[in-house]
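Quick one, T. Sequence first:
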Amino acid sequence: MASSSSSSSSSSKPGKSYDVFLSFRGPDVRNYFLGHLYTALDRVGISTYKDDEEPRKGERISTELMKAIRESHIAIVVFSKNYASSTWCLEELAEIMERKEQGGLMVFPVFYKVDPREVRTPRESYLEAMAKHERKFGKDLERVGRWKNALSEAGSLSGWHFTDGSEAGFIQHIVEEISTQLGRVPLDVAKYPVGIDSRVQQLRTILNLQSKDDVLVVGLWGQGGVGKTTLAKAIYNAVFREFQGSSFSEHVRENSKSPSGMVALQEKLLSEVLLGKTFKVYSVARGSCLIRDRLHNKKVLIILDDVDAAWQLDALAGNCQWFGNGSRIIITTRDKHILVSHGVNPDHMYEVKALENSAALELFRKHAFQGNQEIEISNNLVDSVLCYASGLPLALEVLGSSLCGRGENEWKSTLQKLAKSPDKKINDVLKVSYDGLEHYAKEIFLDIACFFKGQDTEYIKKVLDSCDFDTIIGINNLIERCLIKDERGTLQMHDLIQSMGMDIVKEECRDYPEKRSRLWLYDDVLDVLRGDVGTDSIKAIVLKLQEPEVKYISPSAFTNMRKLRLLIPHNVENSFSGPIHLPNELRWFEWPRCPTIPEFRDGPKKLVGLDLSNTNITRVLKQFKCFGKLKFITLKKCPSLVCMPDLSCTPTLEELDLSGCENLERAHESVAYHEKLWKLDLGGCPKLQRFPDIPNKNKSLRKVYLYGTSIEELPASIENLVSLEGMDLSYCKKLTILPSSIYRLQNLFNPSLNDCSKLIKFPKVEEDSSDPHIKTGFPMLSYLELGRCHLPEVEFLENFSCFPRLKTLNLTRNNFTNVPICEKLYSLECLDISHCEQLQEIPKVPEKLGTLEATGCKSLSRIPSNLFDVEDVELGSCHELVRNGLSVSDWFKLEEKFHGKTWCHVVLPGGEMPKWLLPNKEGYISFVVSKDLYKKFLGVAFCFVFRAEGERRCRFVLHVSVNGKHGTGLRHYFDSFNLDHVYLGYRKTKHMWRGDDIGPNGPSHFHFSIRVDGNPWSKIIVKKCGFRLICKPLENDLEVLLQDDQLLDSALLSEVGYEDSQTSLEEESSSETEDLQDSQTSTEEDGSSELVYKGFDIADFSIEKHRYSSINPSYRNVRPGGEMPKEFVLVGDSTISFMASQDLHDKLLGLVLCVVFGVEDGKKEISFDIVPHVGGQRRNVVAGTLGSFDSDHVWIQYLVPNVLWGMLEGAVDFSQFEESYLQFRLAVRVSGGTVKKVGYLLSCERLEDDLKVVLEDNQLMDLASLREESFDAEDIGWRFRYSPEYLSKFHIFPRGRD
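Structure tokens:
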């Protein structure tokens, strides 16, 4: 009978039945040591489980015992002489160690009259016992191995060793230590810890608790209110029992402000780690020494929350040597640089980000709709609050609580108030990061918040540099403090942080905008400019209107703004025709469409940037000579500008942009003599006919843009631009001659001459006999663009020594018939000769060449033998080659091709795959193999036959994963072809699946799939697909394993040796192909193509689960509730069905699915399968998980038709069916919950009236399901169907793609 103490104890924790579980071998210790230990624990109120059943029956432990282990905080394992002889004890121990690994149990070993080494090695009686078990369970060695691992792990834990002496004192020591451990209580995390579990799991991975020999410092960083402290508390609760001591120091920033604050923090840290002891610290320095001296040999968990200065870390956790092996130090901060300066490894830094849409909605609803609230609030209002909070947990909690119990009018009023000024509680938390900035950084932050959020980073740096700010370090500081982010070359910030910054400026003077430092609001700006009320307080004015508006601006509006440094009005047209007077302090003036030329006062000007684009300026400012600091001039699209200004009056000028000036005729000769100008843009000036002579060496000019001009030739003196790196002459339709002197431009890197249709030749290098020491050639040139020039020959390439670094050569759409032997262009990696229709032969190619694009070379009939060594070859529409016998099989005919390459591919005309590939209709393979078998794999060969109709380039995407973790995929672009073509590719396994993601011992699940990605202008139809796994020869034991365990269908494997010169791929029996086709033919209804593997549970590695992991979560919305939005059309049997012709299908933009599901009996993970059929054929199964839920929810998912019904996500091939109208069907399945309702909408372009009549007359579909858009996909762009504006119509509110 099992017994346990029923006494209550303050150490007992909610949700656990026992404090301690005792594991022991009864005959060894029950009546003496164990009985005394149990009594001593019970005496101090520690609830203890002790199994009194003896003898124990069977070899498996009882359900009751397993439950007791799960329901205990601590397990004490008493290792006695005969402990290992009991299979019951060993099973019990294995269960205990598994619970410990999961983070739910602390384990302490007691070595009772046995040496710890005897347990963990094992030795003596333990060795004898394990040998006996191995003989008994010979066929179940996995079970014995599990016991051995448990003994080894438990024997390595820190515990107590008793050999001789007083048992009473020994037991008392154990009881004291257990009492101390039970005194370590978990922290209160949050009222509603939404979205925490997944983040805790990610942090556990970073913490790497399995590593015992190191001390790890982990940093959590993120903006204020994002949930850093909540996450830190959650991870503390999850792992603190695995350490000898732990401490959570909260509010370090706030608590260290007072003189004695840091000393108090040090005392608290020591007292928490060393429970039961108190410490008196007299100074910070002594406290640091005390922490180091007392904790250097202890495995501890230290969390330092809200650190904002390096000295705080120096005082509390100076370095890793302060703590014992296995210790973990976690720091939370708003300032990433704190972590960098403390030496935290970047891999151990975790950015805490805002919540995703579904989690944000769940958290908000828990606060806003508590209890059985009956007040109805529209979804639009809820969505507006969510949009305002943008996933910030603090905002969701504060706003949810404040709106709880209020009606719709109060919600609307609250939103109106928030639009004017932020919530104080939220603002105060966010403002802490701002308050810690230096003055210059505050100025930078306020400028970005008020004016520049979302704009180009380089542009912002230019503007702010003009104000004498230290912009680079300032922006880096803001990024590290999580106030801004640099995303894809733009500076972004959270909406609430921007609101906080704007509110700081408004607080300068709530009632009088003219007394604020910055103006950006429409009414504020116009009121100040109309009324001459500007003051010295105004530093910057930026107003950017969507459409041009004519407004009155007083000529003296800026007279009193003596500190004005930025003036950027866009689309503001002044009704007053007189000049505007600007202050000399102005640093950046940017007024496109400015109606008059502004005037400045006499004296030095501080202007750095001037932009008067789209104005009628005919000359530049009279006082140009006084602009001693001007660096940037932009006068784009100024139709009245005829001549470039004289630059001699602007000695500091660095960039001049006159692009698009349609009447500009002359470039001023001063360009040749300027010493600072490095960028000159004269592109798009069609009347510009000549570039000025450069009589002397010019070392400043590095980039010149002359595209779209009428220049006929370049001067020979161009050679004097000795620093020139980039020159764009594309679309110069009159350019006929290039001087040979361009070979003296030693720094030229990437000249572009595309679309120079009259350029009859590229010059050859000419030696200068007068000065043999002059260097010629292009030593720095990496890219040369000569596409669409109609060149009849390219003999200049024969002098290969002129192009030692040439990597990319573009010769598309030229008229030459032969290419010179370019084998000695040793650096050439990419050669594009596409659509050279007269080209007949390609000579031997350079060894480094990795890409050859020759699509559309209709006359091409001969290729070199070493072209088979090139990894990326496109020969689309090269029909002469195919007529001469070339096929895709030639690329993989030689066996060594499978060994030397990372990847390779070829595109050729044709409609048949190589016979050695195994057909596969679904475009993916998924298999489970052991690590030993995986080591034999060389790569994957894959192929598909396709037709791409249209004029735009298409692409295919390769997705790979191992054990659910994404590997290195691939995106490849290719031209459209109206005839069938074959794509054949190969990738090495080690370059797709990372070794770190492969399980160390057991089998791993591998996934490999191909998807094509078209657009409205190119329709891709995939007709066939096939795969083959290429591997080294298998040893006999691996072949037996393959057959016995069914880890992988052996027909998918092709063994290649290292000795033979040719493989027998083509000769393999076609029966293998037929067998595999049969094995892949699955029942249409259940769609299962999984195998059941003996001895291995692959439920967690479901083929379906990872098949469509590319479905973007941003295109879905999961919200609490049980009501489906009214616009959706309800269907029965969870199945959507409709009939469509080619015309209608081509009009479809997307299917919006709506599912109401319920959850019973607590929180469960919800997964889904969407099984589509077209014309009775099953197509692309969409599967995934939605998250964990404990109540009814509404799931709305946006799906593109091709993702569902096109083979490999291409277009539906109506020609393969006899019917004009096909049935499109969609079955929805949900696991973990119950489907209560299913509805849908079909989003489409405008339908013609006659098509609507056909649909209605033939009752092909429910017309109520059609949602016609007021645009055509071609008119508004393919990406619109993924835009927030479009998706919000269907209650989906993405914040961006993953």
